[in-house]
Specification:
heterodimer; A: 302 residues; mainly alpha; ABC transporter involved in vitamin B12 uptake, BtuC; two-stranded antiparallel sheet; 2 strands; globular; B: 325 residues; 12 helices
């Protein structure tokens, strides 16, 4: 038996984790399940693709692959721009749609609105870019042996390292900075946080911006490892929710652990049952956790 | 220019039949969301379960899929509704004691897994090839399309009317009042000794059974089903129908279904008229954008929809001064 599927599982888990952090934060701070989060991933990947293409056209060797990696600095620079753009998209959606509903106090209507926004955004992306898959690069990479018979490409190793850095950064921000403390305060008790002088609307904007930027990073990662297509984010939505609920809504380390469980579960399923059943894993995890421990693994004591 | 009257009549009859099938699904969603406030994002999955169960039971024996018991169509309808209702009850029991949006996430998962199963469990469902040779009501008239279409339209209109009357009676019954009481103020309902969980599961199962019935009727009307029919876009359309028509109002649900289906069909005609063939697949995406924008605008600007919910009271006191308004 080859253990190579573990590498695929950890990669999938890392990228699900990046998305699930955004889901778990918006869920606990805004108190609704955002069905449009998958489209943030898709939007981020396409925005990066467009900007990288433009950079490559302006600067002659921006598209040249860097060292052992498959993409040039154009994609790296573009992904930073795209993270800002995706944060902007999340803020704009909040401004146009969710803000009005928040003041009306109809949390569950907000879920419907986010479902509608998800469909509309995805259809717009499909209109703009067609449903044909796109790629950042067509270069093939040779996987390097890691020992124990495991292999990974240089891209995969770099992405894993970057994801770990991002996750540690978010964790430090939430636990060590004032804004992070304010975010956790709003997630625990918005009324009390407001009384103690926390600007709740500002915290909500920060949450959207952070969630959008991380979703964009996940989208670029998915685009590099697999491909870019209009349904890429939507198909990841169930794993994102499953990871967030498994980890306990509101817990960032929980979302990452949940994501690793879902990612490894998917990879094991692909290995032993066939790739067509991959999408059922997140559902199985979700049903199990709802049956056994619906508050999640790392639930806050209430 | 001559107008092909027969063709126009056939188109209208087909259009109305499909719109009314959507209206049945929409009525089912109204029981769940409109009356009870339960959020189902997997409508397409519940419709698919009804369609597949009925189709597998009633088709002639076949090697392409499981079943093929050649059961009568009516039995298929009932089995489709029961299967989808049972699945809804199970999902309800699992999630309704938890946060409201866990139901949304779980039903979303149900739709994903049902589609996956329909597509990949080829020996059971026929896989991507779907199920063909599903018996159709009034098959003996199939040689005369106008009569065939009219009979099916009449049959489905009768089902819509029956479901409508039954749901209106239920809404006025003590059971319906408890549902609305739970939706408006769960604590007060609980204080009156009503078990919210039980009523919610019942309402969710009833709504799911109606969706399954609609799926079964649709399968027999078309005669062929495939996994493609049950994509998230279907869920989305039914939601748009209910929200635009006015959730909580059964007439609103039927009106919304007719209106959105008319807009959907008209936008389809517009796409094929204004876009060159190579761009039509792309332009079709714009139809979804338009429905999504309409849905979002309704939620923000006119949350009660076209009809809005009427005050519903017991049929014994309706019309009494100051209450029936």
């Amino acid at each position: 038996m080859s253990l190579q599927f573990l590498v695929d599982g950890i990669l999938a888990g890392a990228l699900i984790g990046l998305g699930a952090i955004g889901v778990t934060l918006t869920y606990s701070i805004l108190r609704f399940a955002n069905f449009a989060h998958g489209e943030f991933l898709t939007f981020g990947a396409y925005a990066t693709l467009l900007i990288a293409g433009a950079l490559g056209a302006i600067v002659p060797d921006a598209g040249q692959a860097l060292g052992p990696f498959s993409v040039g600095w154009a994609v790296i620079a573009a992904s930073l721009f795209a993270m800002a753009l995706t944060a902007g998209l999340a803020l704009a959606l909040d401004r146009c749609l969710f803000l009005a509903l928040r003041f009306r106090g109809a949390a569950i209507s907000t879920v419907i609105a986010s479902f509608g926004a998800s469909m509309a955004l995805r259809a717009l992306i499909e209109f703009a870019f067609t449903s044909r898959p796109a790629y950042f690069t067509r270069e093939l990479q040779i996987a390097i042996p890691l020992g124990f018979g495991l292999r990974a490409t240089p891209d995969q190793i770099a992405l894993l390292a970057l994801t770990a850095l991002l996750m540690i950064g978010v964790h430090l921000m939430l636990t060590r900075t004032n804004i992070g403390r304010a975010m956790r305060a709003v997630s625990e008790n918005p009324a009390l946080a407001r009384v103690t002088g926390v600007d709740v609307e500002r915290i909500i904007r920060m949450t959207w911006a952070l969630g959008g930027a991380l979703a964009c990073a996940a989208g670029v990662m998915l685009g590099l490892i697999v491909q870019i297509r209009p349904f890429m984010g939507f198909d990841l939505l169930l794993p994102l929710f499953a990871a967030a609920i498994l980890g306990g809504v509101g817990s960032v380390p929980g979302a990452v652990v949940g994501a690793l469980v879902v990612g490894l579960g998917e990879a094991a399923t692909v290995e032993f049952a066939g790739s067509q059943w991959r999408a059922a894993v997140a559902f199985a995890v979700l049903i199990l956790i709802l049956l056994v421990r619906p508050t999640g693994l790392f639930a806050r004591p209430t | 220019m001559t107008i092909d009257l027969n063709g126009l009549a056939a188109y209208l009859s087909f259009f109305l039949t499909t719109a009314l099938l959507n209206a049945i699904v929409c009525l089912g969603l109204n029981v769940q969301w409109g009356q009870t406030g339960l959020f189902n994002v997997g409508v397409a999955g519940f419709v698919a379960v009804g369609a597949y169960v009925s189709a597998l039971l009633t088709t002639p024996p076949s090697d392409a899929h499981w079943g093929g018991l050649a059961a009568p169509i009516a039995l298929g309808w009932i089995a489709g509704a029961v299967a989808s209702g049972a699945l809804s009850a199970f999902i309800g029991l699992l999630t309704l004691r938890l946060r409201a949006d866990y139901l949304a996430i779980t039903t979303f998962g149900v739709a994903t897994v049902v589609e996956l199963f329909a597509l990949n469990a080829q020996r059971v469902t026929g896989g991507a090839f779907g199920v063909a040779f599903i018996p159709r009501p009034f098959e003996t008239f199939a040689e005369r399309p106008a009569l065939f279409g009219a009979c099916n339209l009449a049959l489905i209109a009768a089902v819509v009317a029956a479901v409508y009357v039954a749901l209106e009676r239920l809404a006025r019954s003590p059971w319906g009042r408890v549902l609305r009481a739970i939706r408006e103020d769960e604590r007060a309902a609980r204080a009156l000794g009503k078990d919210p969980m039980r009523f919610r599961v019942q309402a969710f199962a009833l709504g799911g059974a109606i969706m399954g019935l609609a799926g079964a009727i649709h399968a027999h009307f078309i005669g062929f089903i495939a996994p493609d029919n049950y994509q998230p876009a279907l869920t989305f359309q039914v939601w748009a129908m209910l929200i635009v028509g006015g959730s909580g109002n059964n007439r609103g649900a039927i009106f919304g279904a007719l209106l959105i289906w008319a807009l959907w069909s008209a936008s389809g005609l517009a796409v094929s008229a204004f876009f060159p063939p190579e761009d039509q697949a792309r332009a079709a995406a714009l139809r979804i954008v338009a429905i999504g924008a309409l849905l979002a605008a309704t939620i923000v600007l006119r949350p009660r929809g076209v009809f809005g919910e009427r005050t519903t009271v017991s049929r014994h006191i309706e019309g009494a001064d100051g209450l029936g308004a």
